[in-house]
UniProtKB/TrEMBL annotation:
Pfam families: OMP_b-brl. Coiled coil: none annotated. InterPro entries: Beta-barrel_OMP, OMP/PagP_B-barrel. Residues 89-274 form the Outer membrane protein beta-barrel domain. Keywords: Signal. This is Outer membrane protein beta-barrel domain-containing protein.
Length: 274
């Protein structure tokens, strides 16, 4: 009696016996390729395992906060090789602003113009003096939006009243705050319109010469001012501008007469910007 052959027990499973060596060979070859690439680049094996989270590429690669990681990378380029970053991190690093060793932003220059006194009756004949002075400002921020300002002005006029030469000298010292809105390219042509205001220390001296005798009187007062203007850069450090200012609250007494030296003033500005 012929005995049937049990195929399952007699014929060995070729699939089972050969699958493991195949996987082993392929895995070993892949590992060998990775090892060779790592030796050639010095960082490939680490880069393969470095995570790349969109939006936080640097933190994902170094385990630190984005800002800390960026500063560390910028300060120590050698540290970057220890934490290779994905390509998405390159724009993040490139966009980090670099300090250029900044300085103080401001300007100083001379002013030339005229002012008109409000009380034309009291100052008849000397109510439209010419103005000469200086003004300057210094920014409190990097853009020049908020600034401290100061100015000093001298205004002089004269007239003849029934044979008497009358001279009037008006002086004022102002200090206040300026708000600007730079318009244009910071590295090129840029307009600087502004408004400002503050406290004014103003004085007036009137001198009269009659028959060889000189009579004078003066008074000083505290008021306030407000102004608006614009500066135009001509070169990197030279600018011109125009300014309109009002001065109010300046009550004075001269020769027993109560009046004021409130005025409206328009001047041109030529200055040095820094």
């Amino acid at each position: 009696m012929t005995r049937p052959i049990d195929v399952q027990t007699t014929i060995p499973s070729r699939t089972e016996s050969r699958s493991c060596p195949s996987v082993f060979v392929v895995g070993a070859a892949f590992a060998l390729i990775l090892t060779a690439s790592s030796c050639a680049t010095g960082s490939m094996s680490t880069a393969v395992h470095a995570p790349a989270i969109v939006g936080m590429p640097i933190a994902a690669a170094s385990g630190a906060e984005p800002s800390v990681a960026v500063e560390a990378a910028a300060a120590s380029p050698s540290a970057v090789s220890n934490y290779p970053l994905p390509l998405s991190a390159v724009p993040y690093l490139a966009a980090k602003p670099v300090a250029q060793g900044g300085g103080v932003l401001g300007g100083i220059g001379v002013i030339l113009g005229r002012q008109k006194l409000d009380d034309t009756a009291a100052w008849d004949g000397i109510d439209n003096p010419g103005v000469f002075g200086m003004q300057g400002w210094i920014a409190l921020d990097d853009e020049g939006v908020v600034a401290l300002e100061t100015a000093v002005g001298l205004a002089y006029d004269s007239t003849d009243v029934v044979g008497v030469d009358v001279d009037a000298l008006f002086t004022d010292l102002t200090a206040g705050l300026r708000l600007g809105l730079p318009i244009g390219d910071p590295g090129g042509f840029q307009l600087r319109p502004y408004v400002g205001g503050g406290v004014a220390l103003a004085s007036v001296e009137v001198t009269g010469d009659f028959l060889g005798s000189t009579v004078s009187d003066d008074d000083t007062t505290v008021g306030f001012y407000a102004h608006v203007g614009v500066n135009f850069p001509v070169t990197e450090h030279f600018e011109i501008g125009a300014d309109f200012r009002i001065l109010r609250g300046t009550d004075v007494t001269l020769g027993g007469i109560d009046t004021d030296i409130d005025s409206n003033r328009f001047v041109l500005y030529l200055g040095y910007a820094f």
